[in-house]
UniProtKB/TrEMBL annotation:
Keywords on record: Aminotransferase, Pyridoxal phosphate, Pyruvate, Transferase
One Pfam family this sequence matches: Aminotran_3
Name of protein: Omega amino acid--pyruvate aminotransferase
Record EC number: 2.6.1.18
Species this chain originates from: Devosia riboflavina
Similarity comment: Belongs to the class-III pyridoxal-phosphate-dependent aminotransferase family.
Annotated InterPro entries: Aminotrans_3, Aminotrans_3_PPA_site, PyrdxlP-dep_Trfase, PyrdxlP-dep_Trfase_major, PyrdxlP-dep_Trfase_small
Keyword Iron belongs to the record: no
SUPFAM superfamilies on file: PLP-dependent transferases
Amino acid sequence: NVVPNDLNAFWMPFTANRQFKKTPRMFVAARDMHYTTSDGRQVLDGTAGLWCCNAGHARPKIVEAIARQAAELDYAPAFQMGHPKAFELANRLVDITPDGLDHVLFTNSGSESVETALKLALAFHKIKGEGSRTRLIGRERAYHGVNFGGISVGGIVTNRKMFGTLLAGVDHMPHTHNLAKNAFSKGPPEYGTELADELERIVTLHDASTIAAVIVEPVAGSTGVLIPPPGYLKRLREITKKHGILLIFDEVITGYGRLGTPFGADYFDVVPDIMVTAKGLTNGVVPMGAVMVSAEIHDAFMNGPEHVIEFFHGYTYSGNPIASAAGLATLETYKEEGLLTRGAELAPKFQEALHSLKGLPHVIDIRNIGLVGAIELEPIAGQPTKRAFSAFLKAFEQGLLIRTTGDIIALSPPLIISESQIDEIVTKLAGILKTLE
Ligand code: PMP
């Protein structure tokens, strides 16, 4: 039996973890589209791990690059010293980011990338002599990781409430999902701009000269695949530009091909000032994040050496050799296999398959963009999350990994998925939905 007898020492403070420890479900191996469980079953990966293994699992090029790098140069100090692969990876990233985002800071996770972006935004204004710009604006129902800045600008109240005031001076715009109005992504054309104009309201309330940055996920992922209505992000860009406020896109999920374009910024044709990424950067294999910034921001810091010294930031593992090697091999794999745009080719098939679930018991909404989708279920009265979690357990028993968040089933398969595997996911889900209480 590969499952240890005592699961107590390992602790992840999520509520779901209590249930997990009663009935542990462990993966012991993975390859391409499948995981192997501790009892030897194959499970089709409908979620790319946690939205991160975009090229599938155990891809030989990435495995070999990591092994070779570990043997050749395992670590180089991140401050006074460097090593070539970090520079090479930064250059390859700049090749695929939208024009204007030409400088890269490396971190070790999405959460660290978020903190890096927020600190950059605040320090940038200070350097420019606009130190009054200290306020940050996030959005309801947004997820920006678990660190202090990220939960402050994040829109999940339950993640914040134990920690007092957190970052001072944070406002939250309304989220983009309005099921009751059926307005989200399908609403009237003016809905997107109307919704973005909420930002104008907040700006007027506080005065533009006090606001440093607005942070949004182009598509909110882990809170249920909330796709903004047409015009929404373009209008946010107009408003932020007009008032000298920086726009930050958190592309931890939407980056690296998830929407069928390299980044969400490409999909919506809106270039932010700062782009936050992680997950798919190394195919989820080695922890790494990257924050891309505009030349204006980079130059403001670099042209004044005293500012660089005042702005102390960077991690022991920023651009570490093994992560950089994994990142380079991942980007090569994406390029060779056309994965950064494969989501666009598969999107019509994915959409058709997903929407075939319409009308099945408990399904109240289905939404999709690129290779990410959500099936929203009617919650059981007084027992939110129960119905979707029961779908998760049934799917797992039937050899399918899905992710649930609240009463929403989220799908984000590796971008190497075949059309018949899309059918397999949807056929299994259809069967499961029919048996749910
Ligand atoms: N931002 C977004 C949009 C995310 O989806 C996530 C993780 N799901 C994070 C930040 C945090 O990333 P990490 O868990 O790597 O810290």
